[in-house]
Amino acid sequence: MTTAPQARAAEPPATVGPPVIVTTMRFPESLAPLSPGVTVITADDIRNSAAKTVPDILSQQAGINVRDLFGNNAASTTVDMRGFGASGSQNTLILVDGRRVNDIDLSGVQWSTVPLSAIERIEIVRGSGAVLYGDGATSGVINIITRPASARKSGATLEARGGSYDAHEWQVSGNVAGASAGFSVQAGNLESAGYRDNNRNRQSNLLADMYWLTGVGELTLKLASDRQGIRLPGARQVQPSTGVNQLDTYRRGAQTPLDYASRDGDRAMLDWRVTTGFGEFNLSGGWRGKEQKSYFDFSGFPTYRIADLDVLSLTPRVKITTPLAGFGNTLVAGLDWYSWDYQLRTSNAPGNIGRPINTVDAEQRNVAWYVQDTLQLTERAALTAGLRQERVSIDARDRHDATAPGGAFGSGAPAGSQKNTAHAHELGLRYQLAAQTALNVKTGESFRFANVDEVYETSALFTHQFQFLRPQKARTYEAGVETRGTAGRLRGSLFTMDVRDEIHLDAFSTGIGNTNLPPSRRRGLELDGQWLVSNAVTLGAAYSHIDARFREGVLPGGAFTQLNVQLAGKSVPLVPRHKLTVNAAWAINPQTRLSAVANHVGAQFMDNDEGNTLGTKIPAYTVVDLKLHYRNGPWRVGAAINNMFGEKYYNYAVRSQFVADRYNAYPLPKRNVTVNVAYDFR
């Protein structure tokens, strides 16, 4: 259940401090003292951690698993909440300043677009969000809030960072804040050779934020631009039957020394918030565009791709807080309109892309309305109910040029279109057992539509076609409790999620790309807490147990793969059953702080091993990070050791479809060091 405004507490609060502002109801509001299921990671939390990227921070949270292909500034990282495995990035909705950044392709979230130093807070809402945000909020919502210009003092900051694998980075920011207007700007650049061969990465970003205050509201304009170029080393191959184990012989080597990719992205968001005696209104509009280029050599049969994507959005909404039948009541309602334009061009070489072999064009429109109401039944109890209806339409076509270089043996997909309507609902009760303890129970249904990359596939004869799929549905039941006191806090939750028509790649059945899988179920326990041992020492821990299994079904297989892969009772690949994080922080003195975190992730089945028959899993691993932070006046200095004990590990591997004991793994960096220094001009 999302956080609701509360009437006066039945008892005095156990702790008193500055209010934490969140946007879990799509409007800024104070976080209720006890909000099970809602986690807020503050800028101080980020600054004191050894994390270098947003996924690093998220990996320490209960119920969240992170997979990284290369370990090079989160360039190819997936965040999976509550056990969806390979499709985790399509089932966890990621927002930046309340605007979705999950796209209608499979490119994944570009985490480097928002540097850690620009983040005000990160809001994690587990098991909720489908009513307010819609498509893809199956397991929850992660909202990254950048620091607004209105919340900063006038000044500037210069920061430099260097570390292992020839990594060096700089960030510069400035802010001018006035009584009624202001602006801020931040720019940065990172370069790193990477742990693996052929993995050089260069990322740059620019963010600007302007605001104007009026007598009744605020107008905000946010602009951002990001660039990335990265080399792609591929996997390390293991096949015991032939004695091949590149993880042992040369784990840093490159299987694909010629492959690379780049991304150029831009976005703009205009937000107008007005407060009246009737309610609070917010009119938001946004645009985002990106161009992605990639080259894959495929052992002398190369493919070069350019994908262009533009999305326009308009999201008006209103929040009305007025008593209903004598009860405190908050109503949030709104409309979401998204318009996506996508084009993919493919060729056999960069020099031939002017005459592509295939050109795929797709237009997608999402239109939704939603309403969510929170009724304060008593001083202790609040009831939340919400409903959303969303309609998607997609039109796609594929032009094939047989006379283009390399196009003689290709094909074009017949044009296709699809329209679907899906509903989400949620019902929840939050009960404050005491000033220190609150109980939360809820149930709801979410949905996900297939994206363009998931429906553009090939037939059994390897000709292109659009294979439209049914919307995915998920029903969730959850109960959680949280308690807080002067010495710390503790949160726990139990959940069950039944998924129907799950959209996922069927790597076994010939002529089938992504498909609607048989029913599956996720069950889990999440525990996390923090304890103030003394004025100088804080301890924390987060534990997750997730059991993700198929309930029934068979994958037919094909001539070159396994036949009749039995799914009933099998574990979903890429979902560790156990995950434990332990952290500690020691304020040595007012200027110096030492932080440590140990992250243990249990064994998990490899991608493509839906039948659980490979006999080898991704091994369990434990990684320990350490950071020392010192501040003296305008100076800030830090040093971090990541993977301090040099664990040889990987968290993504994929089973071969053709050879029984072969798999490819993506090893991650061993011990590495980062040093940074910053100066604040005030």
Task: Kindly describe this structure.
With 682 residues, this protein is mainly β. The chain has one domain (21-681): Maltoporin, Chain A, CATH 2.40.170.20. Mean pLDDT is 90; it is low at 1-19.
Keywords:
23-stranded antiparallel beta sheet, mainly beta, 682 residues, Maltoporin, Chain A, 42 strands, globular
Per DSSP E runs of 2 or more residues, the count of β-strands stands at 42
Mean pLDDT: 90
N-to-C span: 42 Å
Tally of individual domains: 1
Radius of gyration: 25 Å
Low-confidence stretches: 1-19
Under CATH, the topology can be stated as Maltoporin, Chain A
Summarize the structure.
By secondary structure, the protein is mainly β.
Show the helix and strand layout.
Elements lengths: L20 E2 L6 E2 L7 E5 H6 L5 H5 L5 E5 L8 E5 L6 H4 L1 E4 L2 E2 L18 E8 L3 H4 L6 E7 L8 E9 L3 E11 L3 E12 L8 E13 L3 E15 L4 E4 L4 E2 H4 L10 E16 L4 E17 L6 E12 L2 E5 L6 E20 L10 E19 L4 E20 L15 E19 L2 E12 L3 H4 E3 L5 E3 L5 E14 L2 E13 L2 E3 L8 E3 L3 E13 L4 E14 L3 E4 L5 E4 L11 E12 L2 E10 L19 E12 L2 E8 L10 E3 L7 E3 L6 E10 L1
Parallel strand pairs: 6-9
Antiparallel strand pairs: 1-2, 3-8, 4-5, 6-7, 8-9, 10-11, 10-42, 11-12, 12-13, 13-14, 14-17, 15-16, 15-41, 17-18, 18-19, 18-20, 19-21, 20-21, 21-22, 22-23, 23-24, 24-25, 25-28, 26-27, 28-29, 29-32, 30-31, 32-33, 33-36, 34-35, 36-37, 37-38, 38-39, 39-42, 40-41
